[in-house]
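Sample 1 of the test manifest.
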Amino acid sequence: MICGIDIGGTKVLGLAIADEPLDPIGHRLAPTIYDSDSLVDTIVSMVSDLEVDTGRTADVVGVGVAGIVDRDGNLRYSPNIPGVVDLPLSGVLSDRLQRPVLVENDAASATWAEHRCGSAVGCDNVIFVGLGTGIGSGFVLDGVLHHGWNGFSGESGHMIIDKTGPTHLTGARGPWELTASGSGLTRLARERAAEGCLESVLELAGTADEIHGRHIHAALDADARDVLELLDEFGHEVGIGLANLIHLLDPEVVVIGGGLVDLGDPLLDAIRRQTSSFVLGGDHRPAVSIRPARLGNRSGAIGAALLASELQIG
Amino acid sequence: MICGIDIGGTKVLGLAIADEPLDPIGHRLAPTIYDSDSLVDTIVSMVSDLEVDTGRTADVVGVGVAGIVDRDGNLRYSPNIPGVVDLPLSGVLSDRLQRPVLVENDAASATWAEHRCGSAVGCDNVIFVGLGTGIGSGFVLDGVLHHGWNGFSGESGHMIIDKTGPTHLTGARGPWELTASGSGLTRLARERAAEGCLESVLELAGTADEIHGRHIHAALDADARDVLELLDEFGHEVGIGLANLIHLLDPEVVVIGGGLVDLGDPLLDAIRRQTSSFVLGGDHRPAVSIRPARLGNRSGAIGAALLASELQIG
């Protein structure tokens, strides 16, 4: 059995995977604790709990974590897990668990999971883009999960697409995730509602400031036309960054993950339409397939488990 | 002996390389002809001439060309060589020359040359950025020249950094090469001169509209302070795009090539300073080394020759 653990900004998800990654034999959930020692304790307990739950021993453990992870499995820092900085997560966990532990960035783990058993099986050049609070991404290039020099590759959310635009909480002006993430969609909806548009969503939320993703979702379910216009405008933002990635890396498939995927075809169609409008030389290159992620919020844990089982570690 | 040929927008350069790539035993130059048949004839003649010049036979031929080249060595299209579209360059040349011919994008060839015998020897994660009329670039990732799904990767010049900015000749708004190429520097200098700044350059050029790169170069040689300010402003544009590439691909080394490298340390220092101001988490990651290219305008031909000698082709 392999344990795959996904440490997010609010929750830690653990899966026990035997033969079939898509059908874990055990799972556990715990809150994320913003303290190194307690976070390590959480993971050690979770592995132990999964072993008890399943009656199996975890041979290796894979951890995907929302943060900057170097090639040695050290968590350098994480905007989403304040208080945990420069934690040698792989080393500490290997010592505590007395078995090989692989630590990887969560978006990279999700990328690998979608490549191995999700939406991009059989494709060797894949970009995964998770649209959530921010944007997380990862690249499979020529069949290999890309890490870069330090292990820090794939930070697409920080790609500047609007150099004179508004300032993000990172201090940068106009990074992709400012407008093309879930937060960006909510902000855009509030702006449009404050301007007197987007009646369908405004009706559900009460005031512009109270608009959340669920209101957009509900209006979409009711087939409101103004929401489709909103998604088209949002797709424009996503499309600029995707076209950048396509020009840079020439992928066969782009997998869209993260919470926004729940908006379904209307969002994906808008993203496809807008992206193709930004890709140059469309007559001379085959179209890139833009697909929804298949594995949902389990992709990070599944990918970490697969990476741990596949790589030579320890 | 290996022939390395670089087909640019105005010139075709051919090198005959024996043991030492940095010291070719023969070289030839010809004008680029914007017609498929004549262009093929030019290359065939050039290989023959280099054989006569050196008294050696070319075992393989490598061609780097300014355009979109697919994985099979077909030149799909080239903004710089109008009239040549969908030319199966590798196939046609192999037939005519009766030996293996590898065809690659010129910036990718230059990237490989700098990795193998230029500024980035020993570094497995390298980004090459050529600042010329436009921006050409290439990536070495984990020691491998990256091609992508079709062979089209590395089109960094089309990366949008200013989504509401001016429109480029491609129709895109605010792509990197619009402001961060040699043309971008000249345009910026003309703008500043028209505003009454940049006296040193204006004096040399006569009027703002007549400013060219050589005037910027000459003013720099004379240590004019206003040119340093110009380069700093230009470095800001280059730095935004380089920081994007660093966030995406986490390289160890960025090699700056193209004609602008002749501006030397003042330009490189401005680029280094501005790039580091845009890279996030600088305290948690080692600094990326930004270096000038070593091989100059021979890099495309040298790289194509090296690739032809190294890859299994034919």
